[in-house]
Automatic annotation (TrEMBL):
Keywords: Cell shape, Cell wall biogenesis/degradation, Hydrolase, Membrane, Peptidoglycan synthesis, Signal, Transmembrane, Transmembrane helix. Pfam families: Peptidase_S11. This is Peptidase S11 D-alanyl-D-alanine carboxypeptidase A N-terminal domain-containing protein. It comes from the Bacteria. The chain crosses the membrane at residues 329-349. InterPro entries: Beta-lactam/transpept-like, Peptidase_S11, Peptidase_S11_N.
Length: 360
């Protein structure tokens, strides 16, 4: 709906690039939509197709954390069921065992550090009460509505592709803002390693997991975030960092991993955001419980209309893992690509076909 596109300010109702007038142009990235915002003031510093529909992949786990982390006792011990391990073969998992007993804190760390899809199922079931996992997903959608995330709907707690599942770069920033306001989440997001406890009753030893978000440890002032990937969503990313007392968040959807991986695209967009004046703004993140469009900023933004899609084929995913340098940059302002992706997502959801697996 048109009013949904204007949430946060009328300048954000574009499928193209919107940046502060007179400021430097953002770096070229392959993400079909992205947004950079100030976590504390809520000011949106710049975006490309911020309200365009996209597929979340594993960054949806942030919505699970925002909705359920305050509800669950981290010291409670939960027993994993066979249904909790009902995830796509080959998708990301922590290695929780049926019949295993784990502190909820360990399950959260497995979710955020290793993107465990079975961990997402455990937490959604636990937080869903009598309704189980379905209740957890319902709680996620209710929380998204409360935040004003009008272009977000969860079908799975993990971000594995499901019918009718979508989000936007703007909505992800609303969700991330809640997550990074929680000191427990911030501590988890910066945890480098964690030991999964032994399950002596099952004859299994414990093991160590590592933080899978490369921003942590490689980007000065990193606060953490979440990576995601399915073949439908492509690469998705949410990351935050602090510099000179200023905390920024970046969200991006539909990225290819060449010439830069998703987190690297997030890093260069954070660099761009930190280089902008503190009063730079093209809109704002609405406050929870008040999902009404805010006035347009007094500083007139620069809006670049959508451009034609890049005719070059997508990068070969099988060659992406070894690429670490920036290389030649593609232009994210090709928002014609974003509009096409949004259309494809809607058609896929309409046909209720599932495609792809979560990797990140």
């Amino acid at each position: 709906m048109a009013e949904d596109q204007a949430v946060g300010g009328s300048a954000l109702a574009t499928a193209g690039l919107v940046t502060p007038a007179g400021g430097p142009q953002p770096p070229g990235v392959t993400a079909t939509s992205w947004l950079v915002a100030d976590l504390d003031t809520g000011q949106v510093l710049g975006a490309c197709g911020p309200h365009e529909h996209g597929t979340p992949a594993s960054v949806q786990k942030l919505l699970l954390a925002a909705a359920l982390m305050p509800r669950l006792d981290p010291q409670q011990v939960v027993t994993v069921t066979k249904e909790d391990l009902d995830i796509e073969r080959g998708s990301s998992a922590v290695g929780l065992l049926v019949g295993g007993r784990y502190p909820v804190e360990t399950v959260w760390l497995g979710l955020l550090l290793q993107s465990g899809n079975e961990a997402a199922n455990v937490l959604a079931r636990l937080g869903g009460g009598a309704e189980g996992r379905a209740g957890g997903v319902r709680a996620m959608n209710e929380f998204a509505e409360y935040l004003g995330a009008r272009q977000t709907h969860a079908a799975t707690p993990s971000g594995l592709d499901g019918p009718g599942q979508f989000t936007s770069a703007y909505d992800l920033a609303l969700i991330a803002r809640v997550c990074f306001a929680d000191p427990t989440f911030r501590r988890y997001a910066l945890t480098e390693t964690h030991r999964i406890p032994a399950q002596e009753q099952l004859g299994k030893k414990g093991f160590q997991i590592q933080n899978g978000n490369p921003l942590v440890g490689r980007y000065p002032g990193a606060l953490g975030g979440k990576t995601g990937f399915t073949s439908l969503a492509r690469h998705t990313y949410v990351g935050a960092a602090e510099r000179d007392g200023r905390r920024l968040v970046v969200t991006l959807l539909g990225a290819e991993s060449r010439p830069m991986r998703g987190w690297e695209q997030g890093a260069v967009l954070l660099d761009w955001g930190f280089a902008l004046p503190r009063d730079a703004s093209v809109g704002r993140l609405v406050e929870p419980g008040q999902p009404t469009p805010t006035p347009t900023p007094t500083q007139s933004p620069s809006v670049t209309p959508p451009m034609a899609a890049d005719p070059r084929p997508a990068a070969d995913e099988s060659l992406s893992d070894g690429v670490t340098g920036p290389g030649p940059l593609l232009v994210a302002a090709a928002a014609g690509v974003g509009g096409l992706v949004a259309l494809i997502v809607r058609l896929v959801h309409r046909s209720r076909r599932r495609r792809g697996r979560l990797r990140a």
